[in-house]
Amino acid sequence: MTLDHLSGVRHRSHLHLASEAGLTEAFQGLTGEVGVSVDEMATRIANSMEGNATSWVLSTAAALYWRVRGNAEEAVNCLRHSLYYAPRDMKVDKWHMGFIVHNI
Length: 104
Description:
By secondary structure, the protein is mainly α. The protein has helices at residues 7-10, 24-28, 38-51, 56-69, 72-85, 92-102. The protein has one domain (21-102): Alpha Horseshoe (Serine Threonine Protein Phosphatase 5, Tetratricopeptide repeat), CATH 1.25.40. It is built from 6 helices and no strands. The model has no long low-confidence stretch (mean pLDDT 77).
């Protein structure tokens, strides 16, 4: 499932998303460590994905990073990846996708 039938997903390269600075703290808190920068978190996620390319959890975290940075296209790409590999009963990725596609 990638939700490509939705117009916002199909035309993701045309989406514009303001940086969601309010998500920064949530993103940084994913590790449970204090003082980890957004860039350090992004590096950790990218490195982890190299060894686990099918992880829907990591690609969901990557989508959160792209939302913090304000890049809708990359966020949607990561969420499409998450939806493809996530268990079918997971609703979190669908919620993220819906927020991006419908609130831009």
